[in-house]
Amino acid sequence: SNTGSEPAAANYDLVSDGKLIMGTNAQFPPFEFYENQTIVGVDAEIMGEIAKRLGLELEIKDMEFDSLPASIKAKEIDVIGAGYTADPDREENMDFTDSYYTANQTIIVRADSTAASADDLKGKIIGGQSGTTGLITCAVELTDEANIKAYTNGALAVEDLLNGKLDAVIIDNNPANEYKNIHNIRGEKIKLLENQFDEEHYVFGVQKGNKALADAINSTLAEMKEDGSFQTIIDKYIK
Ligand code: ARG
Asked: Tens digits of per-residue pLDDT, 6-56?
């Protein structure tokens, strides 16, 4: 029996013994992005700390955002950490942990745009990252499929907004803020229309049926919230 000081023997399946393999798309600051050759950000650090506390080594696999569900279904990764919104359709391919962050889809327009709310974008050309909720749950409410342009990452969509090829980009509030800061420093003015859509809850995805891993992640997350290490990571990346 467990004496309380050492972790209980792990009873969850892992792709590779001793490792926790997290799939992500590392073009999503501040949740995952490259600093030199290394993937850093909220998810990388939270999962790094969870792995450490579970006695595992974290390995991060960067891939197209669209590939994440198939990858977890094919058991190539143990967990998805990608600022990943809990969406019932996604549960066909995976199970979710508890939510660890609340986000909101944000509309980015050029600073000289007259659009003041989502309604002003009805029928317009809207871009975003392929497969993300910004497109699959928000843009579809406003415009026809033919007017929705999917990019491999949000930064490329913002480039096309600045080029005049899009009327708006829809993306999560934290990356939207990062893009706003980056471009406005360069004098390429963009502005944000915030709180136009329902709140979203970020979760980690695990392989379907791997309840033991979800439980281990959930209890470690709770521990990290309790001892302040969770908030320290959030504060490091989100100002
Ligand atoms: N929260 C949105 C979604 O789940 C966007 C996530 C994009 N994440 C990323 N790492 N590129 O669809």
From this structure: 455 578 899 999 999 999 999 999 999 999 999 999 999 999 999 999 999
Mutate to test the pocket of ligand 1, among 33, 87, 132 (most ligand atoms within 8 A of CB): 132
Using 50, 70 and 90 to split pLDDT, how confident is the model at 4? very low
Pocket flag, ligand 1, residue 220 (CB < 6 Å): no
Helix/strand/coil for 124: coil
Pocket test for ligand 1, best of 34, 85, 130, 136 (most atoms within 8 A of CB): 85
CA distances from 133 to 70, 150, 193, 202, 238 (A): 17, 12, 16, 11, 21
Element (H or E) spanning 129, and its range?
Answer: strand 126-129
As a residue count, the chain comes to: 239
Q: Which of 77, 72, 75 is nearest to 59 (CA)?
A: 77
Residue 142 confidence (pLDDT) above 60: yes
The enclosing H or E element of 34 equals strand 33-35
Is the previous residue joined to 29 through a cis bond, with omega within 30 degrees of 0?
no
